[in-house]
């Protein structure tokens, strides 16, 4: 074990300035080393395997910032310790430690993620009544993954308070649950009852699980490096210089960002789930082809599932859910979407984005049909959707895409100007449709993604296998070569971060 620690220490100090992005060559070197140590030297030694995972996770995070690694450790220690108080038979004592945990976790988020936002908003409010105020801004770099690992700790402590989870006595086991390297910086947000038992029981290397993990990682890397990063070039150009473009180009930019953020985030999730499989773990699903949703409720059953289910279980239901009448249901729904928007970042654009989705969700509540497609797949037993399904999917996708403009824009004013410019110039000169320099290149990446997703829509996790073995491996080889080519291209410039790293 000392040898292993020494190897990681050397790596940390030699290449510390590099952050180990999933879409980096460094990660492709880092991962096999951990894998070989895990299944080679430490096979059949559960606690040593867990120790290696924890060390690898902290090393992975420490490449970005050793100072914020201390914050991760502090957050882990807080919830690990408070959990034993929450498990007390004395309800008053248990409630005290529960609120201490919640306050500490939300306090960490408030200081490191929202402090500057709140003081600047206070400055503007005081200015309206003629009071001058010069706040002291912290201007800290947002710790990567802070919103994810604090939510891990909060759900663990709340579950203990509810009696559905017992506190973990072995600190390393709990620390692995909080900081497991595949999900550390951008989820999915795991639940203790799902991941902790996997941490605590012996794991074996299963070839089918390993193969499934590699396929998922390959497909996730392809979506991120080839599709998302390529679309990012078009999106950045159009959004940053939107006054110079016509309405059709702005429409293209809006649609391109919809597919960029989907390929980027679902690509990350695929890599995370695939990486976990390599070490014998199964993580929760986070995406189920959301752009084939027939209404907004179905979209939120399919997009960032671990976050939406977290808010449902730990905020929506405690507020009363849908059990106390329509008015309370509407109130709780609006709260959930506003909080979800604000969770994404300290900017009013995210709050507006959440409010737009709340407004789109309300008609479903009034009509009593928010769960009409919750457990079905579009065109389940058919090759193509019906005209009605196609119109439903198109309307839902366009609504989501319009809301994405606020998510992508720097501020509300920019988002409104973008949409207004798109609407006004769109109808002025229809011939401008032929003058979009980015149209062909964007569709080159969008159309294959849509077709492949449609082909896979009944399968939530992996590429459907092709019966012919030679063709199957030829496809894998082609995907790998294309991905490596694009990876080298973007790395030679600068690796493009995953979008959700900023949250």
Give the secondary structure arrangement, pairings included.
Elements: H1 2-14, H2 25-41, H3 46-62, H4 66-86, H5 91-128, H6 146-162, H7 171-179, H8 192-200, H9 207-240, H10 247-278, H11 296-302, H12 305-316, H13 326-344, H14 348-367, H15 387-408, H16 412-428, H17 439-456, H18 469-493
Helix pairs in contact: 1-3, 2-3, 3-7, 4-5, 4-6, 4-7, 5-6, 7-8, 9-10, 9-17, 9-18, 10-15, 10-16, 10-17, 12-13, 13-14, 14-15, 15-16
Averaged pLDDT: 85
How many separate helices? 18
State the major sheet.
none
Strand content: under 5%
Helix content: 55-70%
**Morphology call:** globular
- The sequence of SSEs as H and E is HHHHHHHHHHHHHHHHHH
In short:
It contains 18 helices and no strands. It has helices at 2-14, 25-41, 46-62, 66-86, 91-128, 146-162, 171-179, 192-200, 207-240, 247-278, 296-302, 305-316, 326-344, 348-367, 387-408, 412-428, 439-456, 469-493. Helix 7 (171-179) packs across helix 8 and helix 14 (348-367) runs antiparallel to helix 15.
